[in-house]
Task: structure prediction
Amino acid sequence: MLRRTLRKIGSESRNSCSRSRSLVAAPLRANRWMTNSEAPSNGSIGAGPRRAPLSIDTINKRVINSEYAVRGEIVQLAQKIARDLEEGKASYPFDKVVWCNIGNPQILGQKPITYFRQVLALCECPQLLSHPHIREVFPEDVIARAELLVKAIPGGLGAYSDSAGALIIRQLVAKSIAKRDGYPADAENIYMTDGASPAVHYMMDLLLREPNDSMMVPIPQYPLYSATLTLYGGRLVPYLLDEGAGWGLDVAHLRQQIATARASGLCVRAMVVINPGNPTGQCLSYQNMRDILGFCREEQLVLIADEVYQANIYVGNKEFFSFKKVACDMGLLEDVPLVSLHSISKGFVGECGRRGGYMEVTGFPSEIKDQILKLASINLCPNLSGQICCALMMNPPQVGEASYEQYRAEKSAILGSLKRRAELLVSALNRLDGVTCNAAEGALYAFPKVTLPETAVQAAKQLGKQPDWLYCKELLEATGIVVVPGSGFGQADGTFHFRTTFLPSEEDIGRVVQALGDFHSAFIQKYGGLQKKQPALATAANGDNEY
Amino acid sequence: MLRRTLRKIGSESRNSCSRSRSLVAAPLRANRWMTNSEAPSNGSIGAGPRRAPLSIDTINKRVINSEYAVRGEIVQLAQKIARDLEEGKASYPFDKVVWCNIGNPQILGQKPITYFRQVLALCECPQLLSHPHIREVFPEDVIARAELLVKAIPGGLGAYSDSAGALIIRQLVAKSIAKRDGYPADAENIYMTDGASPAVHYMMDLLLREPNDSMMVPIPQYPLYSATLTLYGGRLVPYLLDEGAGWGLDVAHLRQQIATARASGLCVRAMVVINPGNPTGQCLSYQNMRDILGFCREEQLVLIADEVYQANIYVGNKEFFSFKKVACDMGLLEDVPLVSLHSISKGFVGECGRRGGYMEVTGFPSEIKDQILKLASINLCPNLSGQICCALMMNPPQVGEASYEQYRAEKSAILGSLKRRAELLVSALNRLDGVTCNAAEGALYAFPKVTLPETAVQAAKQLGKQPDWLYCKELLEATGIVVVPGSGFGQADGTFHFRTTFLPSEEDIGRVVQALGDFHSAFIQKYGGLQKKQPALATAANGDNEY
Result:
């Protein structure tokens, strides 16, 4: 019976393969694999071996080629050292590893916001709401908020919600966006996500059709963008941020980059902007943002606005504007497809491990939003705890509510501390010989430029590594401090950087800065000192120093 | 300065493009996009338009072609109806929608396990641990477990953990696996995941290199497999489960399918097995499992074992064996690359919205495990709440502990109720005219086969839809019951099915069954009744009825 069924499938297949697929197309047919009418006629595909036992040579090369330096080789070395220290297996000139490679505040002692954790605890265990002593343990507004959420989210934390997120959550997020920007926001444009990363994956999947599709990405960038571009088979079109101009953008440069990309045969689908920047921390000026929106409209690009650091701004003369707001100011909301990302991981909330965030999608045709919803539905839904925390972040206690004072105090303490540590670190870096560091206007990082002795550059080359990798490795081995080489983010040709967070606690950061300074002097001395006059660009014949 | 930098990048680029990429390769270079040495020389790629403004025609066709029926068109219609009912906008012959399309127990009234929620609430808000009245609210073992987890997980719920999951969590999971199987399990082989779905995505990404790569997938299957195969550009090689033999497997059929696939030019990378089955609910026999492992070894396939329903087994004569255990019994653990998936969403735990689970990876070369870790690191880490819940699920209260009795009672009540509802539903379905339904030995679903009048088949064809889609749509409109057409899962040519959960509460399920039966009779009558003798295969010229 089975064999007869399959023969029938085979014989009926031929005329159905060419039928086009609609949005809700005829379901998968057994036959499809039997004909290769969908395979390219290129002889090189289809002539491959019929067996490919699992080995490093038979896995997807895009996976192999993807790199994510924030948890790359230096970090893996650090993990080994940390294990050795814990198990007493080896001795190092330090007693603990200091994780400055990743924006993960709560692992370095930053406390969560009490109000959020209290509401979430009650959502976890709604039975507590009817406990006779509940009001001795939780403030009234916490109880009220939890009751509202438990009632409004069918099945609570334990049930799959709508794939874009529970309606109440999206409504709360939309309401907050509208309040922030002064323009309406529609819950139907909100897709909750497990952190901001899934949103980037969706956009890569949606927009990259073939190897010549590409996206414009700032250099330096957060390497999620380069990693996912590689993974999804697209190309990266860089646009360099100008270190000498506070990491500012130059629209003329954008135009040149896109022209060169197109002349090479690339189709540029989107532009990524990270604002405030990562690793650079700069806040774009309002004018720059207008320029970018105008550029995206002219060039018909999707704008992907990574705004996860919007709550981390430390300088009085800068203010966060969302790209959504500026697009509305310019009357361009319907003309520029815009994806705005936010997350609970950063700001002063720092709930990295919870994985929460959202993307707001505007200027997209509704049939494409349907496709985004479908992508989200394949993974069912984002986790409810992250959804709730995101809604709480966007709708915190208000003046007059029981938790307001504590919330305000906690927020203020964290942001004030971040600002102090940012300034301390950046000024300390600027005092080091051959090191310059732009101010961290926002985000959680410093991205100092380090002038390295030519001997060090050559030593790295001998190892087949980037010079800043060598610097970071030796820093780790001398001090236990873990930072990420600038080559992992991209940088102007011939320059070297590293990214460090300024998240070590205020108690620790003085010692971290001291250790870093001592190491730096020793490193420079080890490699023969800095020449009085450096060549404008340190070059290597094989292009090692690009960026 | 920028322009000079880029010119330099361009001129230095040519000789670096050909350098091979190692695991920690030289970082992304600005130049890479400038040359298209990596683009195929096929004229059709690279000659496309340089602009592609966002529209339904310019997005990735794989996204358009991906389908996930569990939240497909029928479900979207149901959502619209539910909104209409809530807003009083339209009237229907029923007052509520009954969601039988998805295994989402807590939305239909199943209670979470108290112990898990109590521990998680304390992990959410560790401040509670020092509250003077804590012991009036939480049992001693809950407090102890939370204290252990808070201490052992650096940064708690709010910090990114290791990308494979926090060490303590992986150790707890490994310990439990070893206890279940009687063979050791290594924490280094465990990768925590946000539900089981991300594990499937990783495997698709890892193993599908080009359009002729494929995986063997059971028909009927859980459509995550067909959706992700399409999304990642691979092919599905079906193997039919035999409905007449309790959805059993036939190894001869597997051999035939793989031979035909290879003869068509496909390279088969892996075999997916869902055990207990979804939508079919069957538990594979131990012998079948031995056959499958032997087959995978002979044919050098990765075995992907979706075991998320391992705690849902309702028949006394069947027992769950993990593929890991059987592989160990056969001495094949190092010879068959095996990925075993589990999740907190199913069983009696039902924590769908939390997104937790793991994959255990055995028989993989370590350099490939490194690549899996890298893929996980790009998304940073799975959510901590899901990680903790998974560890709790695998390490529940033990005899003698304060929470044991309540835990045992809750577990027993849920499983007993699931079993009763499974039996009630399946026997009711079997009483319907022209409907047969295999017993639900496990999982959460019934997958009845429905004989449809030829008139109905033709009516569906007129609409460009599958006949079982039509049945499901009319069921929804008549009763508010939401089920998923069998065509969404795949089925033998000429047969029609639908998948329904048996999750409506024991109070509701009687009425659901009644409404379903009334609808069925009306539907058959509406379309002219069943012929006394059905043709062996209902065919349509264009192959609509494949599967």
About this structure: Chain A has a mean pLDDT of 89.
